[in-house]
């Protein structure tokens, strides 16, 4: 049965049912009609006959008898079938369908890139501020510069990551994922620690994997930035020709690649090469930080906590995880200083008369990404709950800044490593719940 027939079938059945209903009712009703009314009905029927003849002259046909009606109905059914076959669209081949889907996907990606570039333009002050923080090592390596660097980079990254636009929908974390995240993290860091203690150094393998992912992350996060740095270039149309053989291997519709993607990929590969250059880390730690920042930004855009309760479960679990591995063992400090890879932010340690085993102050990437996911969730809460008094996103960003300052303050007092999540997680959850109370939306936020 054609699509046109399936569309018309309900109408035809309805017409047939109505006709059969009239045919069965009319004779029965006629026996009980009084003579004056019956005479009036005869006149009405004669008038209807005249109307039917006029309608037939305009191309419509209407038969009084059941047999003629059914014959006409069958004739119309055949006519509809032939009409449906005539207007049915040609069948799309698999190759045509695949090409259409690729073109639709490219259009979707370009639309997403336009949104991303627009958001970067809105937040250009904060991107410039982030760049300015990279100049602090030129000023000095005292404690104040390192604290200012870590604080500025972390808070700015959380803010920008919470506001950034993405092309594809992020991967949503379920409650079970959040519940077992501390277990998985403990197994990972415990495994690295045991390998180091056994004399097996997998730093190089781990760092190679991270830097390769970092190159791809720079390629991704750099596209909207590049479009804002060079607004005069039409990156939506700008392409670089490639050999036809390569285009066939990449399954491209035409032998060309987008200019912006190639430029940012080249920049990512260049950062990877500089990272692996035979130079001391003190001379290239900013490159390591750039790779770590790109990985953090991509993670914030690719992962979603999904709900407030899921976020609270994740933060509570990692709160305990961080405290145990930092205060209860030497595992966290050992892995952080022995495994050298761009998964942390570094700043040269201040001068000291006492030799240091590790020449950097460190802020773990997880201390930015994990709270940053919660802050990004609060930006979605603003869109859905529309608070009247205080913005959940702004309050969460401020709570993150306050918790980080508290961590740095305690670190300065006791002069030992602190689990940052010990200060960040209560600040975030408590701050957003207080914000919900001010907005009269505690139950709404809890169920969000």
The tally of beta strands, per DSSP, is 6
Question: Compute the gyration radius: what is it?
Answer: 35 Å
What is the residue-averaged pLDDT?
Answer: 82
Please give the share of residues in helix. Answer: over 70%
Strand content: under 5%
Biggest sheet overview: 2 strands, parallel
SSE string, helices as H and strands as E: HHHHHHHEHHEHEHHEHHEEHHHH
Shape: globular
N-to-C CA distance: 47 Å
Which class best fits the helix and strand makeup?
mainly alpha
The total of helices stands at: 18
Strand order of the largest sheet: 1-4
Low-pLDDT residue spans: 1-67
Protein model, in words:
With 448 residues, this protein is mainly α. Helix content is 72%, strand content 4%. The chain has helices at residues 3-30, 35-57, 66-87, 94-122, 124-133, 136-139, 143-163, 175-197, 203-229, 244-249, 259-275, 285-302, 308-328, 331-338, 366-385, 392-414, 421-439, 442-446, and strands at 171-172, 239-241, 256-258, 303-304, 344-348, 360-364. The strands form three sheets. Strands 1-4 form a two-stranded parallel sheet. α11 crosses α12 (285-302) and α16 runs antiparallel to α17 (421-439). The radius of gyration is 35 Å and the shape is globular. Mean pLDDT is 82; it is low at 1-67.
């Amino acid at each position: 049965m054609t699509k046109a027939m399936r569309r018309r079938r309900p109408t035809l059945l309805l017409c047939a049912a109505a006709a059969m209903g009239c045919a069965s009712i009319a004779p029965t009703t006629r026996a009980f009609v009084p003579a004056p009314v019956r005479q009036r009905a005869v006149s009405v029927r004669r008038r209807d006959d005249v109307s039917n003849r006029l309608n037939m002259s305009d191309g419509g046909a209407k038969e009084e008898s059941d047999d003629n009606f059914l014959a006409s109905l069958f004739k119309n059914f055949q006519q509809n079938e032939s009409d449906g076959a005539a207007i049915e669209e040609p069948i799309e081949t698999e190759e045509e369908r695949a090409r259409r889907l690729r073109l639709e996907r490219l259009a979707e990606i370009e639309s997403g890139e336009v949104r991303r570039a627009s958001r970067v333009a809105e937040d250009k002050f904060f991107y410039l501020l982030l760049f300015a923080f990279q100049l602090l090592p030129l000023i000095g390596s005292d404690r104040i510069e390192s604290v200012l660097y870590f604080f500025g980079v972390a808070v700015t990254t959380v803010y920008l990551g919470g506001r950034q636009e993405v092309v594809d929908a992020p991967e949503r974390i379920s409650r079970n994922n959040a519940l077992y995240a501390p277990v998985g993290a403990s197994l990972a860091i415990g495994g690295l620690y045991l390998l180091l203690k056994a004399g097996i150094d997998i730093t190089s393998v781990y760092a190679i994997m991270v830097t390769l992912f970092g190159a791809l992350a720079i390629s991704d996060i750099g596209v909207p930035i590049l479009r804002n740095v060079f607004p005069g270039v039409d990156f939506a149309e700008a392409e670089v020709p490639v050999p036809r053989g390569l285009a066939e291997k990449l399954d491209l519709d035409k032998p060309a690649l987008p200019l912006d993607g190639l430029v940012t990929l080249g920049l990512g590969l260049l950062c990877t090469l500089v990272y692996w250059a035979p130079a001391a880390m003190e001379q290239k730690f900013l490159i390591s930080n750039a790779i770590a920042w790109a990985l953090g930004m991509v993670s914030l855009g690719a992962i979603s906590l999904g709900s407030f309760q899921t976020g609270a479960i994740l933060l509570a679990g990692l709160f305990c995880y961080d405290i145990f591995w930092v205060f209860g063992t030497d595992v966290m400090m050992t892995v952080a200083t022995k495994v050298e890879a761009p998964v942390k932010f570094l700043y040269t340690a201040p001068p000291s008369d006492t030799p240091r085993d590790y020449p950097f102050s460190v802020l773990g990437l997880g201390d930015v990404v994990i709270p940053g996911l919660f802050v990004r969730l609060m930006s979605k809460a603003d869109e859905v709950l529309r608070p009247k008094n205080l913005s959940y996103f702004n309050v969460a960003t401020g709570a993150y800044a306050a918790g980080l300052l508290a961590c740095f303050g305690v670190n300065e007092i006791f002069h030992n490593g602190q689990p940052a999540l010990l200060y960040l997680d209560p600040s975030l959850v408590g701050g957003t719940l207080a914000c919900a109370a001010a907005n009269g939306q505690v139950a709404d936020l809890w169920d969000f």
